[in-house]
Here is the input.
Amino acid sequence: MPLDFQGLEDRLIDIVRDLVRIDTTNPPGNEVEAARYLADLLSPVGIETEIIEPHPGRGNLVARLRGTGEKKPLVLMGHLDVVAANPSDWSYPPFAAEIHDGFIWGRGSTDMKDMIGISAVIMLALARLGQPLKRDVVMMATADEEQGGDWGMGWLVQHRPELFDVACAINEGGGSSLQVGDNLFYTCQSAEKGVCRTVWTARGKGGHGSHPRRDIATLQLTRALNQIGDGYLEARVIDTMRVALTMIASARSADAMERTVALLDQGKIPEAMAAAGFDQDGIERYRPMFHDTVSVTGLRAGDPRYINVIPPVATAYLDGRILPGQTSRGFLQQLRDRVSNDKVEIEIYERQYAQGSESSTDAPIFQTISQVVAEQCNAQVIPWQCQGATDAKHLLSLGIPVYGFVPSRPLPEGVEGAGPHANNERVWIENLPFALHILGEIAYRFCTD
Ligand SMILES: [Zn+2]
Here is the structure.
């Protein structure tokens, strides 16, 4: 018998709106207010709640619905903080959660107060079952994800290790629908890229602007930057993407699958994607999934007030994103190999390095997700890589597999949304009960099987 959500669907909409109205812009965060809101919602039905506040205002909620303990707990994880929103760039106020055109508008509505609300309602539905589950279900709603998680998941992993004797976690980052040719897939994020940000410094002699020289710092730096081309570095097909492309191709035809696999083996990635059924747009959009990348995001040299002076130092800042398996050393080596100029120093910027990560698609939770989606959406789940980084990294460092799965249906033709970090971020209201039913069923099945 599936989990019963009667009366909870409308409540979910109210909860998501309430959460959006609690301004948790990070910095400063002030997530504790949202954590308290959730504790007040969950504790009356017998769910154990604890608010952990490692720094004033930086609140984390850990809520536990106790099971028999026969199996290890399932974690539903999510972050309470949001990125900044400038009201003048928005059509409606970003913290009012107004409803227009079938959407709840507001900062955090898709990243990720929707999922926080869904997890809370799943906890309520599981609590009223009145039947003990085979495992605890632990909801972790944490602070500070948008700034790395030092006051949130990172802190919990460091200081509350006893919370992490768990089977696996479901997180943000996946669940989007992906149409390839005639086939619809839902992505389950089982890998995410890491970051490796660098600062490049060129030094030269300063001097008078009336006397140009080839070896001045600004030219050394720009020549070096030119050597990284379009920013796509080493190409590699990680397991997650190999499985994904193979599944997509085999849904097309046995022949497409054979060709895709052969092309992947030859390292011909765009050709393999085309064989799997991606059009040119798709091939371009997902290109970062197969490369270490860099983007030049900052440049600094001189001062326009002294336009007649050659500056002795020029600096560039590069946002680097690395595939799972790549290391900081390997990545720096790649950059240095390309930049055949030892006058330009390349260093990691302010320790901004985090490895990418990958969880196995053989895990039981992945099977449960696949089964439920096959039954309820008539679609296949494919493993997928997230181009950004989430709090998953903290759990993966403990060896806990994490899967990003917040199912979202394709928007109807002509309807436009706006997702994480965008102005006018908004969540499609119709998707909320859909995601609730799917995720709820996944949690229920995983904890009763
Ligand atoms: Zn997020």
Observations:
- Residues 79, 111-112, 145, 172, 420 surround zinc ion (CB under 6 Å).
- Residues 49 and 63 are 4 Å apart (CA to CA).
- The longest helix spans residues 431-448.
- The first strand starts at residue 48 and ends at 55.
